[in-house]
Specification:
Length: 234
């Protein structure tokens, strides 16, 4: 009898010990799992923060580079304007600005030159904030853009694709300029401002930069500072 009781108590204690050991092992596993989860989460967060910081720094660097490029281009353009201000442009044609009409009209206007460099025009201008038009635009709206100080680049079927591509890039980068085809013009490539016009054979002609520098919002502008947005957009 006594031996049986002792054996039963031993078995019960062994079971309790095994259960407690299992519970300790389970708690240990849970602690390890929590630790692994925390470490993993911390690593993920650290990685995200690090990646976010990298992106932010790279974005700031790119922004600084763009600002530096813009500042350099503005400085270059300002230098060109200063140099061009008192420079005569070979081959340039000029018209007396005082004799060019400036009335706003609704009737059709016949201009004595192609493309026109001034005269009566529609009350709404053609958008000229670096706008490139693939189709011909109405003269009466383009002339109003010239009145606001824009340079209008035009071309006909004789123009070379490489020249057109280069001039498109220049116009798109230049506020107060626009570009469109004028099939009837004599020159392959022509640049017009209010009362001024130049024909060139190539976009690489140095007179192109001089013309832009001198006449984009230049002294010939009847209405300097007037808008080149909010008008007609083809």
């Amino acid at each position: 009898m006594g031996s049986s009781n002792t054996s039963g108590q031993g078995s019960s204690q062994d079971r309790k010990a095994r259960i407690e050991a299992m519970r300790r092992a389970e708690r240990a596993r849970e602690r390890r799992n929590r630790t692994i989860a925390i470490v993993a989460s911390t690593a993920v967060v650290a990685g995200l923060v690090g990646f976010g910081s990298y992106l932010f720094i790279r974005e700031q660097d790119e922004k600084k580079k763009e600002e530096a490029q813009v500042a350099a281009e503005q400085k270059r353009q300002e230098k060109l304007r200063e140099e061009a201000a008192g420079k005569n442009i070979d081959g340039e044609r000029s018209w007396d600005a005082k004799k060019l009409g400036r009335d706003h009209v609704t009737k059709p206007v016949s201009y004595p030159m192609t493309p026109p460099v001034g005269g009566d025009h529609d009350q709404v201008w053609m958008n000229c904030n670096g706008d490139v038009y693939e189709k011909p635009i109405p003269d009466k709206h383009a002339v109003h853009s010239l009145e606001h100080g824009a340079v209008w680049v035009t071309y006909n079927a004789k123009a070379k694709p490489a020249d057109l591509k280069a001039l498109e890039s220049k116009v798109k980068a230049t506020p107060y300029s626009l570009m469109s085809p004028v099939n009837e013009q004599k020159g392959a490539l022509m640049l017009s401002a209010w009362g001024k016009q130049l024909t060139v054979d190539s976009a690489k002609d140095p007179r192109v930069d001089t013309f832009f520098a001198k006449y984009v919002q230049g002294k010939q502008t009847p209405e300097p500072g007037a808008a080149c947005q909010g008008g007609i957009a083809q």
